[in-house]
Fold this sequence. Notes:
Blueprint: H1 16-21, E1 26-30, H2 35-47, E2 50-55, H3 62-68, E3 72-75, E4 88-91, H4 100-108, E5 112-114, H5 115-124, E6 128-133, H6 138-151, E7 157-159, E8 171-172, E9 178-182, E10 187-189, E11 192-195, E12 204-207, H7 221-232, E13 240-244, H8 248-255, E14 262-267, E15 275-279, E16 286-292, E17 295-300, H9 306-321, H10 326-334, E18 344-347, E19 353-357, H11 362-375, E20 381-385, H12 390-393, H13 398-404, E21 410-414, H14 424-429, E22 433-437, H15 440-450, E23 456-460, H16 468-479
Parallel strand pairs: 1-2, 1-4, 2-3, 4-5, 6-9, 6-12, 7-9, 12-13, 13-14, 14-15, 19-23, 20-21, 20-23, 21-22
Antiparallel strand pairs: 7-8, 10-11, 15-16, 16-17, 18-19
Helix pairs in contact: 2-5, 6-9, 6-10, 7-8, 9-10, 11-13, 15-16
Amino acid sequence: MHADVSSxxxxxxxxxxxxxxxxKEHIHILGICGTFMGGIAxxxxxxxxxxxxxxxxxxxxxxxxxxxxxxxxxxxxxxEHLEPAPDCVVVGNAMSRGNPLVEHLLNVGLRxxxxxxxxxxxxxxxxxxxxxxGTHGKTSTSSLLxxxxxxxxMSPGFLxxxxxxxxxxxxxxxxxxFFVVExxxxxxxxxxxRSKFVHYRPxxxxxxxxxxxxxxxxxxxxxIQRQFHHLLRCVPGGGLVVYxxxxxxxxxxxxxxxxxxxxxxxxxxxxxxDWRAELLEADGSAFRVHPGPDDSAExxxxxxxxxxxxxxxxxxxxxxxxxxxxxxxxxxxxAFKGVKRRLELLGRPGNVAVxxxxxxxxxxxxxxxxxxxxxxxxxxxxxxxxPRSNTMRMGEHRAQLAASTRDADLxxxxxxxGLDWSLEDVIASxxxxxxxxxxIDALVGAVSEEAREGDQVVIxxxxxxxxxxxxxxxxxxxxxxxx
Length: 483
C-alpha cells in the first residue's frame, strides 16, 4: 500500500549527477567495521566512491557485508594504509590521539572529517531526515520506522546501528527523499566532542527516553540534556518532535527550548499522551493504538515487552508525520522481522529458547526481562549478563543491576576483563538466585547442565561475550533431547 506524501516532499538535488563524477574519488574509513562507520562505507560505495578502510577487528558479519560491496578492508592501523593518500579520511569516534593512523594523517596534512559530518554533507542534504534518539531503543525504533516507510512504498534511505531483518543490511541510500537515521548522543570524533546527532538536522525527531549513560564522556544527566537541547534547536518549526510522555528528563529538555510542534506517546488510558497503546496481550504481542479520540489501529506481532510497544508507537507516530496512516503502519509492524541482537531468537535446542540481546544498561535489562517474563510458560527465565560497556566499567549503575534482574528466575553474571569492581556485591544485594563466572566455558557448561525443556535463556551484552552464543547452542544441542 502507498501513502500520499507528494505534498510533503522537500526539493531533493539529483544525486545521480555526481555519482558518475565520484567514481574515482577515494575515501578511507578508520574504524570501518563498527556498525555506524560500516554503514557510512556502504552509503559511500553506493554513491560511487572508491572505499577502503582500517580496523583493529576485521571479522564477520560486518567484514563480509563490506567485502561483498567491493570495499577493501585492512587489519590494524598502519600508516601505509594511507599510502597513496586518499582524497579524504573519515575518522570513527573510536579513534583517539596516539593511534598510528591518526598521527600519520595529522602529520602529513591529509584531509579528514568525521562520520556524522560526512553523512550530513554527502547524504542528508536536501532530504527529509527522520532521526530516532534516546538512551534505549534507537536501533529497534529506527528499524521499525524504516520498515514502515518501506512497507508504505516510500523506499527510504537509512543508516541504523544494527541489521534489520527486513532489509538484511544496515544502510542504503534509498529511492526517495526520506532518510531514517539512528541518532546517537555519543561524541562525534576526537576532534569534535559534540554529539553525533547534532549533524543530522532532522525534520522529524523521535526522543524515546532519556537517562544517564556514557559516563566516559558525560559528567551527569544535565550534560546529556544539553546535547539534546542543541539537537532540538536544529529541528525546523515545520517539523515534528515525537517524545515519550511523562519522562522528567525529556520534559525538562523540551522546556529549555523547543520551537517545533510535539506529539507524545505512552502506554495506557491514564498516560495523558497524544498517542496511546492499549495492551491486548499482557506480553505486548498484541496492542491497540489510539492516535486520536476517534481513531485506532490494532497491532499483532511477534515481539514482547512494554518497551517494544513504545518503540512501535514512536515509529507509527513518526511515520504519520510523512503521511503513513496508522492502519498501514500496524500492518507493517505485523510483518516486521526484527533486528540482529535485539531479542533475537538464535535457536530452540531441546525446546530451550536461546535469545541474544544488546541490553547493557539496567533499564534495558529490566524491560527485556519483564517482556520475556510475561511470555514465559512453565519454563524458567535464565539470564546470562556481561556488563562490559564503558559506563559499567566505571562502576556507574552498579547499584541498580541487582534490581534490574528481578524478573529472572536465575542469573549468571560474567566478570569481563577490565571490569575493575567485583560483581559479587551485585549478587549479594539481590533477591534473584545468581552465580558469578570468569570463564566462558564454565558458564556454558553450567547452563547446559541445568537447562530443561521450556526454559528461556537470554544472553545480554553489547559485545561478543567471548563467542558464548555459538558455544551455548552447540552445547545444548549435544546434551538435550531433540523435540
